[in-house]
Write a structure and sequence with these properties.
Elements (H helix, E strand, L loop, with lengths): L1 H7 L4 E6 L11 H17 L5 E12 L10 E9 L27 H12 L3 E7 L3 E9 L21 E5 L3 H13 L3 E5 L2 H14 L5 E5 L8 H11 L5 E5 L5 H4 L8 E4 L4 H12 L8
Parallel strand pairs: 1-2, 6-7, 6-8, 8-9, 9-10
Antiparallel strand pairs: 2-3, 3-5, 4-5
Helix pairs in contact: 1-2, 2-3, 5-6
């Protein structure tokens, strides 16, 4: 509900929910599943430009393996997100989770590709069914965690934020929106850029105005624009002491493994794990309790 209401705030689209009292639990990465919900809701709301209703229904689901779902037989939480939008042509349904496939004039299509990746990492499944002019239903299956008593574990303290100024660069508007929400929640002042050129301009302006940016987080790849590899060179030229994190959804890129050789202070894979990212930020800007003892 939190993830949905954040996306729909100020729009003409509303959401109705149906959650049974005996719904099973799931072991998930909260930040990543929030990103999944937000990506789907954003697409649904854009499919209803005149407004409308989105329905989210959760239920306990026992899969016995008789259907052709690419998941193991067992207990799942089934989440159905239903909109009444323009729908998706039947011949395009199998392509919506492909990287860079999009039917929109703006954007690169990576939102649903990341969504698919997150669900697969959770050993689940995501599928879409749609009829043009009638709407789309996205169904998510997440493995249920039905253990009555959780094993006692030593919980690591949640990372603390700070008052640093962070410049965040990513060509995906959805990623920028979520990063802004997350980093602001931890107390950081956030500056957003959609490509390398905009990031360079903002960084140089901050040096002139005295509002020095403490850390830059930038996406490695920007289709049709300046990505992190080229951008960091220009920013280092402006300030050789810059602290920067490179991020990418492609962890096998050599820059991710050898980030220091390119002028970066760290590398973080996408989709972001919220606590991991904050810990890396704290370490780089000197706000890590462990290193400050």
């Amino acid at each position: 509900m939190d993830s949905t209401e954040f996306i729909l705030r100020g729009s003409d689209v509303k959401c109705e929910y149906s959650f049974p009292d005996d719904l099973w639990h799931a072991e998930i990465d909260r930040g990543q599943i929030s990103q999944v919900i937000q990506n789907i809701i954003l697409n649904s709301s854009q499919a209803m430009p005149e407004g409308g209703i989105i329905t989210i229904h959760c239920e306990n689901y026992v899969y016995n393996g008789t259907l052709t779902l690419p998941i193991a037989a067992g207990d799942y939480i089934k989440v159905s997100l239903v909109d009444r939008g323009v729908g998706i042509p039947r011949d395009l349904l199998d392509k919506i989770y492909d990287p860079y496939f999009t039917t929109k004039h703006e954007g690169n299509g990576l939102g649903l590709a990341v969504t698919h990746s997150i669900i697969i990492q959770h050993k689940g499944h995501i599928a879409a069914d749609s009829k043009q002019g009638q709407g789309t239903t996205v169904t998510i299956y997440l493995p249920a965690f039905k253990q009555k008593k959780l094993k006692e574990q030593k919980e690591e303290p949640l990372p603390v934020g700070g008052k640093a100024k962070i410049l965040f660069m990513d060509d995906d508007k959805m990623v920028r929106t979520m990063a802004n929400e997350m980093l602001s929640h931890y107390g950081y002042e956030v500056f957003l850029a959609q490509d390398g050129q905009e990031a360079i301009t903002l960084y140089r302006e901050s040096l002139k105005d005295g509002a020095h940016i403490d850390l830059v987080i930038m996406d490695l790849t920007v289709p049709g624009g300046m990505g992190g590899k080229e951008t960091i060179k220009e920013i280092i030229a402006a300030n050789p002491q810059v602290k920067a994190i490179v991020s990418s959804g492609y962890s096998n890129n050599p820059i991710m493994a050898n980030y220091g050789e390119y002028g970066f202070s760290a590398a973080v894979s996408k989709p972001y794990r919220q606590e991991e990212l904050i810990k890396v930020i704290n370490r780089i800007i000197g706000n890590d309790p462990e290193t400050s003892k």
